[in-house]
Amino acid sequence: MLRALFLSLFALALALPAAANDYTLYVAPRGTDAYAYAEQQADNDNTYAHRSLHRALTQAGELLASGSPTVRILVAGGEFDGQFGAGTWALASVDNPRARLHILGGHAGAFDARTPFETPTLLKTSEGRGGPIFTLGQRAVLKEFVFSGFVLDAGPSNVYDDDTNSLVRGSGTRTYTLLSFRNLRTERLVVADNVFMNGPQGAMDPTIAPAARDTRVLIQNNFFLNTLIPIQQLGTMSWRGNRIATLALRHNAFLMNWPFNPDPPSSTVGAVSLYHKEGTDRVEIEGNLFAYNVGGAMQHDWPFDRMPDLAMRNNLFFANGSLFDEDASDDTGVLVGKFGPNPRYLIIDLYGVEDDTDYDGGGNVILDP
What we know:
Blueprint: H1 2-15, E1 22-27, H2 33-41, E2 47-50, H3 53-63, E3 70-76, E4 78-80, E5 89-91, E6 95-108, E7 113-114, E8 121-124, E9 134-136, E10 141-148, E11 150-153, E12 179-180, E13 185-186, E14 188-192, E15 195-197, E16 209-210, E17 215-220, E18 223-225, E19 231-234, E20 244-250, E21 253-255, E22 272-274, E23 280-286, E24 289-291, E25 298-299, E26 309-313, E27 316-318, E28 335-337, E29 346-348, H4 350-356, E30 360-362, E31 365-366
Parallel strand pairs: 1-2, 1-3, 3-6, 4-8, 5-9, 6-10, 8-11, 9-12, 10-14, 11-15, 13-16, 14-17, 15-18, 17-20, 18-21, 19-22, 20-23, 21-24, 22-25, 23-26, 24-27, 25-28, 26-30, 27-31
Antiparallel strand pairs: 6-7, 28-29
C-alpha cells in the first residue's frame, strides 16, 4: 500500500509544472553608485551583482537551463567593452521552452530609474570584431526574450576612406549584423528602446523559429541610423506549422540609412525589406519615422498575393529614395522594388500606396522632421 501511495505521489510530482524562479542580475561598472547598490541587494540566491555583462550572461545561461525561470539582467548606464575588450557579447545556447530572459540597459543612478536615451548603455565594439555585437547561441530556445535599452555602434569596427570618409567594405570592415538571434525558437520577442548605428551589414532581422501558433514579435521605439539596410528581412519562415501571428514595427526612427549596391534595379535598397507570408500572418507598421533613407523607406519585392496581412498606419515619411532621383520630391520612395516579376523597379509614393494597394492604411503623412 505504501509503495502504491509513493508511486502515485511520484507520478503527480512529474505531472506538475516545475516551480518558477525569478532572478535579478545587476551589472554596473566598478566603483559606481550603481555597483554599490547592486552589492547591497545581492543575496547570491535570487539576486546577484556583476561588474561585467559577459559574466552576467554566463550566469544567466546557467540559471535558464532548467525549471521555469525568469531572469532579468539590469545594466547600468555607461560603457562596456566585453571580455578583455573584445567588443562582442554572446549568450551560450539555452534550450528551455519555459524560460524567460529580459536584458534591460539604460538604468540611471543606483538603479532607481530607467532612462535608456538619457543614460545610455553603450556596448562598445572594437576593431576586427569577430561577429555581431550581441548574439544568442545557435538555435537557442526560450519562451520569451527581451532586449532593450542599449546602444550598438559598429563605427569602431568599420574602415573608412581617409579622403571621403565613406565606408570601405572588404578591407577590414566586419560585415556582421549588430544584433543576431541565430534562429532563436521563442513565443515572444521584444526589441525596444535601442540605438543601432553605423552597421555595415544591417542592424537585426527577426528571423526566429516561431514556437507557438500565436507567436508575437515587437520591434518598438528604436533608432536605426546610418546603417546598410537596417532590417533586411521583416518576417520569418514557419517552424513545424507555427507562425508569427503578429509582427509589430512601432514608433521606430529610420534615418539616413543606405544600400551598398549603387545600382538601384539590381539589389535590395530600402531601409526595411518586407517579407512574404509563409511564416507571418500579420505585419503592423505603425507610428514610425522614415526620413532621408537613400534607397527608399521599404523594399517590396514580393507580389501582393504572397504578402501577409499588412497594416501601414500613422507613419511619417520624408525625402526617401534619392538613389533613384537626386531631386526626388519629399514623398518619393515610400515603397520601392519589383512587386513580383516586374522587369524594373517601381518607386511608389504615399498616394500610390493609398490609392493602388489594399493595405490597411491611414494617418500616414509627408512632413519634414
